[in-house]
Every structure is written in C-alpha cells, then in structure tokens.
Amino acid sequence: MKLRWMAISGGLAAAVVTAGACGSEPVAPCVVARAVSDGSTGSFAATYELKAGQNPDLACAQLKPEPLGLQKYFSQDPKAPDTVGVRSTRLGTLLQTFASRLSEESKASATAVGPFASETPGEDRFCTVPQLTPTRLEVTEAQDPDGGLLPAQEFGYAWNNLRIYNTPEIPGTQFTADLVYTENGCTAEYTVKGIWPVVKCQDSKTKGPSDALCDPYADYDAGRLRGSGINPLFPVKCDPVAFICVLTGEVPSAP
C-alpha cells in the first residue's frame, strides 16, 4: 500500500510539474523594431541631449534630431549572443561626402555593433547592449579642385549603454543610449532617445512643422485619412529643424 501511494504521489508530482510548465508563459526574446521607413531599414527618430557640463557652443555639440538605423543580427553560433548594429543618417552622409578620402578600415567601422547582455529583457523590461564597437572616420587631406588643400578631418561615434524597451505595448520601438561624439578634436557627450517609426511632419503648404502630422489618429475633417503610425502611448511633437516626429517624454514613456 505504501509503495502504491508513493507511486501515485510521484505521478501526481510529475503531473503538477508538467502542468506548471505548460501553464507558464515563455519570455519573449529581445526585439528591435524593423521596417522600411524613409528609404531605410529599421529607422528610429532620434534626439540628442547634451549631458550636464557640456559646452553647447562647440562644433561637436550641435547634433540635431535625425533618423537612426537600428538592426538586430541573429547569431549563427547558438552559444553566442545576438547583436545590434547602429548607424545614423548623418554618418551615412559623411560616408558619401568623403567616400574617396576614407580608408577601407574607416568604412568598415561605420556601423557600430554590440552584443545583447541577455537573450530576453531584464526585470526592468529593457534589452541592454552595454558596449558597441567604435566608429572612426578618418578623412585624409586632399587636393582642392580649385587649388589648395582640403584639410584632413576626423569624426567618431562611441555608443554604449544602448537600452531597447520591450513590452507587449512597446515591442522594441523605444530606445535610449549614451554617445560620445568627436569631431576634429572636439568631444561632446549625449543622451540619445529614439522612437520607431520615423514620420515626416513638414506641412506641405506652410513648409513649417505640423504636430498634427504626428497624431496617431486620423482626422477626416482635416483631410487626414489615416494616423501617423506612431504608438498612441508616445508623447511626440514635430521637430522644427528635422521635420520628423520626436519623443518629448522619457524612455519608457508608458508602462
């Protein structure tokens, strides 16, 4: 009888464990929003805020809101972590402008890449990339077609503490990061925030910024047949310089 009870107890325990395993929800892996927007893949509307103690008059302290590309790369090695690549629109412009004056090494460093600290979000719901490879564009001196010399220049992006928020309501569509930017010997430190997707908001008639174009809801009376596509939870405005919708709150801006 005792043996029979032990067998029943063992079977019941196994059933409880199995039921518990079936009833628990698996934790979703880290997600980075990805879609074609403004001709690029995985574009986020990013803003740059100078950290305390920075001189706002320096040339390197002038970064403006812009589309920023984030891309998740799946590791071919199951034991190695997935990675994230980062490249700004401004950096892409520099690559095109100075293409003939950049070394292959500089071009290869253009996309900063770093591994996720974990496969799934932490308890704070952030997926963290602590460190990314530095970008260093060294533009060589060149002959000016009009005579004289074009000076050598240097641009650097050092990204770290990239944190991408992951919840069912915000599935990898908000991020924050730290950036050390250098330009010809000048260095500035920024806090960067971004939301997906990139939405243009220049009024076609006035050519000025229009917050209405950032509205996630359609307004048939105003002739807007569909919303912006931005998450309604995000507080946003139209940046008057970049003419893209940018986040006005913190990351995360919603539970």
What does this structure look like?
It is a single chain. The chain has three helices and 15 strands. The protein has 255 residues and is α+β, with helices and mostly antiparallel strands. The protein has a domain at 27-198. The strands form four sheets. Strands 3, 4, 5, 6, 7, 8, 11, 12 and 13 form a nine-stranded antiparallel beta sheet that branches. Strands 1-2 form a two-stranded antiparallel sheet. Strands 9-10 form a two-stranded antiparallel sheet. A hairpin with a 4-residue loop joins strand 11 (153-166) and strand 12. Residues 1-21 and 37-41 have low confidence and may be disordered. Keywords: Signal. This is MlpA protein. Residues 1-21 form the signal peptide. It comes from Corallococcus terminator.
* Helical amount: 10-25%
What characterizes the major β-sheet? 9 strands, antiparallel
- Regions with pLDDT < 50 over 5+ consecutive residues? 1-21, 37-41
The overall pLDDT average reads: 88
Organism: Corallococcus terminator
Keywords: Signal
Protein name: MlpA protein
Summarize the structure.
This protein is α+β, with helices and mostly antiparallel strands.
Top keywords for this entry?
9-stranded antiparallel beta sheet; single chain; 255 residues; MlpA protein; signal; alpha+beta
Tell me the layout of helices and strands:
Layout: H1 2-23, E1 36-37, E2 40-41, E3 43-50, E4 66-73, E5 83-88, H2 89-97, H3 104-108, E6 112-115, E7 126-131, E8 135-139, E9 142-143, E10 149-150, E11 153-166, E12 171-183, E13 186-195, E14 236-238, E15 245-247
Antiparallel strand pairs: 1-2, 3-4, 3-13, 4-5, 5-6, 7-11, 8-11, 9-10, 11-12, 12-13, 14-15
